[in-house]
Amino acid sequence: MQLDAHIPAGPLAEKWDRHRFELKLVSPANKRKFTILVVGTGLAGGSAAASLAELGYNVKNFCIQDSPRRAHSIAAQGGINAAKNYPNDGDSIWRLFYDTIKGGDFRAREANVYRLAQVSNNIIDQCVAQGVPFAREYGGLLANRSFGGAQVSRTFYARGQTGQQLLLGAYGALSRQIAAGRVEMFTRREMLDLIVVDGQARGILVRNLITGEMERYAGDAVVLASGGYGNVFFLSTNAMNSNVTAAYRAYKRGALFANPCFTQIHPTCIPVHGTYQSKLTLMSESLRNDGRVWVPKKPGDKRPPNEIPESERDYFLERKYPSFGNLVPRDVASRATKEQCDMGKGVGETGRAVYLDFADAIRRDGRDVIEKKYGNLFEMYEKITAENPYETPMRIYPAIHYTMGGLWVDYNLMSTIAGLFVLGEANFSDHGANRLGASALMQGLADGYFIIPYTIGGYLADSSRQAVSTDHPAFAEAEKRVGEQVDKLLKIDGHRSVDDFHRHLGLIMWDYCGMSRNDEGLQKARGMVRELRAEFWENVRVPGRGEEFNQSLERAGRVADFLEFAELMIVDALTRRESCGGHFNEAFQTEEHEALRDDEHFAHVAAWEYTGDQSEPQRHIEPLVFENVHLAQRSYK
Amino acid sequence: MTRTIDLTLKVWRQKTADARGGFETLHATNISTDMSFLEMLDVVNDQLTLDGKEPIAFDSDCREGICGQCGAVVNGHPHGHQKGTTLCQLHMRHFNNGDTIVIEPFRARAFKLVRDLVIDRGALDGIIQAGGYISVNAGGAPDANTIPVSQEKADLAMDAAACIGCGACVAACPNASAMLFVSAKVSHLALLPQGKPEAARRALAMVRRMDELCFGNCSNERECEAECPKEISIVNIARLNREFIKAGFFSAVR
Amino acid sequence: MNWLTNTLGTSIGKKLMMAVTGLSFIGFLTLHLAGNLSIYGGPEAFNAYAEKLHSLGPVLVAAEWILLALALVHIATGLLLFVQNLSARPQRYRVNKSGGGRTIGSATMPYTGLLILLFVIFHLANFSFVDKSHTTIFDVVSRAFADPVYVAIYIAAMVVVALHVSHGFWSLFQTLGLNHPKYMPAITVVGTILSLVFGIGFGFLPIYFSFFA
Questions:
Q1: CATH 1.10.1060.10, domain B121-250, yes or no
Q2: Cβ B109–C88 below 8 Å, yes or no?
Q3: Which residues in chain B are classed under CATH 3.10.20.30?
Q4: Residue A348: CB partners within 8 Å, gap ≥ 6?
Q5: How far is A630 from chain B (nearest CA, A)?
């Protein structure tokens, strides 16, 4: 299969303008004749549904939560980037573009990233107009702060709840369209299959989570904004309901899955502290603006942090990366942390943690200032750990946070299935092998507010479709298939709970396909995942019935997909013979233990095609062409 | 320090909205005090599953206190007794060995029960749909710094906007009123210059929708403020009242 | 007039009516208490006050009718709110604890309100709608207060009034939107003082009659 990204010709800075002109338009009167199915109500899905409805399309919007306001975008804390250059510190669209490409370890598409940097400014304008209460300076203008991977302050924030405020902005816009009758909202629905007719995405099959009924929805295009797959690790900072099912089932219907092994480990999470734990909690990256990361110089030093004198502390990020210091990108900080813990310098009961210390910042700025900036984060930390971070340094450790991989999309955000558009974290497009902080919010909103409204019109105007109703045999086939899976899950009646399997899968993935990988471990993990999958289908116990509200059944379906998807991740990790960004294969590292890329052979996107349950997925590549940036060894020294 | 405790749970069980419900007594043993309340329920559910019984249905998503999906009334307090904390952030170290914990769903006529502790809070979405937004389409916004907003106003707006829409205010209110929820959104938008053009229409429409959806009336008992996991102040309710009076008596909006 | 019913018919509208009528009763209670203080001046002073009041003629009648109208609004709206609030939670909680917002005054508003209504009827029947052609108001009052049952009812009623005012006063400011971080503390203090003044001011009268007059 030849992957064509449909990148417009011309100079980088003119591509998007030119493309917008070249895209065909749907006239205002004709828009209402098209029905668009949007799956997900996070920053990408919510903003897409609202914007498409504003243009006049008929939109049907689906989410698994009880309200569109709860999508996991809400948990993003730190902020959103934009190239406004309000602080006058040398930022520009070009610099944001370059930082993002470099931060992604040169594994993202130039044209997509440049467009992202271009529309970033419109996002801030849009959000302010919607009433997002961004932080302000005394004079009333917008405040900015710095964030990992950048030497300029370009991050806009609303306390430690930026994701929440942006999402509520999109939710407001969506609510307005629901009230206007342009969006029909379906909550507590889970997409379980994609309906493809004549090679075009024409509908979805969803399960009504309250009644358990299967419901069919037909449309002219499907927009998938169902988030990332971080929960394949069970313990992650993702929400409990975040899952890969919608994306994975689209993959099984023919959409290619790109770079599944690119997973982001966030350096500042509250460490794991028990086997019963259900999820991990992130402490915003913004904390690294004022917090200093350190470990005792001596391995096995068990003294309480306050008793370790300054001379016996190793501020290892500041030492190793003097110019970026504590603000190095996430993958770099995470690996450095792991390295210290592997050397036995880790702190806390488990030895898998390092200190994030605010003592200097509190001395310098006063407790009030620190409290104003991070008060809610400190409170959250104290609730979980029962320790007061104003007095004792926080203990942090990396955790799975975001997935750069996702369904492959072209410049129009359309997957390899015509009419299936994929937005936000669910696609692979903008972050390469590592995402910079405060860029996920930017991408989700860019996709939803400012890109899909143009590109979906181009598709609808430029293609023809036969009429497809929910009586089409493709719906019946999908419903039968999904129904059979549900029945099968309910009949097994084994001896292990769904969560037990999920937890087990997570451990395998974290140990062998997590922060640091090697061929032997990956091979071993592949075998273990296969065994676990086989056991799952013989020994899982899913209580209750299919025709009722049944949370165990919901989770079982998701875990079944994770058990298959995990293998795809491992295969992708095995075949990428280099280290880059979030993918670190121990066989490929510099003398200083930094990721060693192989630009000659792996400057490409690996996109996987499903070929059947019993056969190997097929690897396709999209070469990445860098015409505007120089491929360099990433250095944050 | 980590301890383990044993607890007796009295949990509301109800299969569907129309079925008869009742309390079931369950035992939670060997519960680590480092667990969150929901992790304790996870452990109980795992055991129920293996015992061939149906696990307790309860909602949760982010488990870091921001999505607003979780919530139950624990020993008479929505989200439990700890101030400013959602149920997912309530930790078992705040309970003692041998405690009996009564767990009930949020109850209000406007919140239909789905199953056990799971409820339908669509009514809150309905109130927002009546006007809890600023009507701007994507694309036409002026530069973000065109209108300065004083830091004090932005802070007050943020205080109100911190509402997570969990419905604890309704659950806590002796009258099942949604005034704190409505006031938080009206305040957030009325405080900002961008929200002013629609302020009158918004206040009237949202309050009317709240009434239509059968929430109770505010009688200023302050239970909402006391139980709100985000500690949203009833000063916002006064502001809503003010906005409503302005809209009802002094604006041209009918 | 559609806009007016649309505005006053909402939950906030109803609360506004409660607040405005409630405020007028606070005004009435203040005047009533001020007048009653003349009791301490002895029979002559009190009877002179009553006479002066009645000499107002139509003004007094108008005031009485207005008070009656306000009372009807307050009672009818209060009852409606009470019924609506009860039906807003058809299934009650098994365990219901206060998070610290509620006070005895706030939690008992509908009940103290009904008790006050009963007392007002009783009070009017005893003091207003009695034949005063052969006696003075002071004698009527002192005869009534000679009965310990009456004294007990009267004192209890004043405790109830105090409770009702303790929540009602600050609450009406809140409903009128007059909650400001700088002034609200003062308003709540004034509310507490007022409830004590009403409770003690009216409540001490029967004690005065029983022991000192």
A1: yes
A2: yes
A3: 4-104
A4: A271, A395
A5: 33
